[in-house]
Amino acid sequence: MALANLHLKGLYDTTVEILSLLTPASLVQEVDPQIIETRDRYVETENPGQRSSLENELDSTSKEVARLRSELQLLRDKNRSLESALHETQRALSERDLKFQRLQEEHRDLEGNYNQLRRRAEERSSELRSLENFLTKTDRWSGAQVVQTLKDLNSEILQFSAAASESFSMDRRRDLAVEDKTHAIERVKARLGPSMSRCLAARDHSLDPTILQIALQSSASQCICDALSSFCVGFPAKFDSLLTKIYLHMHSQEPQATAARWRALTHSHIRSLTPTIDEHAKKDMVDKTLVEASNILAVSGYGQVQDIVEDLKSRYLDQIRSIAEAAYRIAVVVREGTMSTDFQVTFIEHSRTFSSDRMDNVYEGYGSSRGTVLCTTELGLRCFTQRGTDARSRADDGFVVDRLDVLKPKVVLESVLQALDPDLL
């Protein structure tokens, strides 16, 4: 019996020692007194009934220990699983943080690249807009509209000339002072030629004002043509001549659109920088038209030049202003609104040989269409267009330019004077 007790006591001590290693301290402290009490009572008792009860109690306690050990193992497994999950989560979070940092860096790089590309795109867009301005061939007016506007201008000049010649031809002729008459004759001779000057001075226009009308019509047309021949109407002649030379050279060396756009921008900025140039240009055309018409009327015997100027102002100033405004409108359109070609108003000087290829005879069918030009009564229009813009279209000295008379100027031949009065020639 004593040996069995010692064996049981050893088993107990071993169980307690194992529990102490595997079980939390609080659990050992809770179970240990009960086991100790059961052990002591088992060792001390010798009653078989009591020993059986103690053995049952010890067996129950051992099962509880086994259950707690199993739970402990489950908790440890779960703890290891949670620790593993925690480590995995921490690793995933670290990787995510690193990935987030890389994404932030990539975002900053992409944002920098985007800003750089956007600046480049804006610069390129600005360049393209600038190039578009220089390369476009879109015209504000069509060629037909320009031609019709010039025809309307010719019609206005004709109406003014007819009214003025009819009005002054009914006035009594007055003799001029020799000096004034000589100056007027020289002026008319320089602009309309000696034949017209002699005819105006010798002929009695009260009977037939046709020659007087033709002279006034030609003089007004020439004044308008002189103004429209400049690069910018109303600009000082010295600078205007330089700009004209630059443009003519550019037109022969650069593509049509480039030269035309340069002309348009230059002309537009000149007008913007000199706001009064429009009115100055119109006034200049009006004044020159009045003076030249007065010289013709003075040579024809209708008073002093200055008196005639005032008389014309009182009668026809509105008509002459309308002519000047129409002419200036054409000047702006052909310089700022025409990109596909280059328009030039044409006027045939006196004493030139008639050519049906370049001009029309006003009195076609009323005699020969050969001979010398007396004067031009209606302005014409010629366009200059580059044949192409590639290297094959260039000659050694620049682009090949085609010339086309879209509206021929109308002229009167000297043979008309002979038909009207053979003694005048």
Structure report:
The chain has helices at 2-22, 25-44, 48-135, 143-169, 178-192, 194-202, 210-228, 237-253, 256-273, 277-299, 305-336, 415-420; strands at residues 342-346, 360-361, 373-378, 380-386, 394-395, 398-399, 401-407, 410-413. The longest helix has 88 residues, at 48-135. Strand 5 (394-395) and strand 6 (398-399) form a beta hairpin. It has twelve helices and eight strands. Strands 1-4-7 form a three-stranded antiparallel β-sheet, covered by helices on one side. Strands 2-8-3 form a three-stranded mixed β-sheet. With 425 residues, it is mostly helical. The model is unreliable at 1-8 and 25-31 (pLDDT under 50).
Helix/strand-derived class? Answer: mainly alpha
Sequence stretches where pLDDT stays below 50 over 5 or more residues: 1-8, 25-31
H/E element order:
HHHHHHHHHHHEEEEEEEEH
CA gyration radius, whole angstroms: 57 Å
The percent range for strand residues is 5-15%
Mean pLDDT: 84
Could you tell me the number of beta strands? 8
Strand order of the largest sheet: 1-4-7
Count of the separate structural domains: 2
| Major sheet attributes | 3 strands, antiparallel
Region (Disordered): 43-62
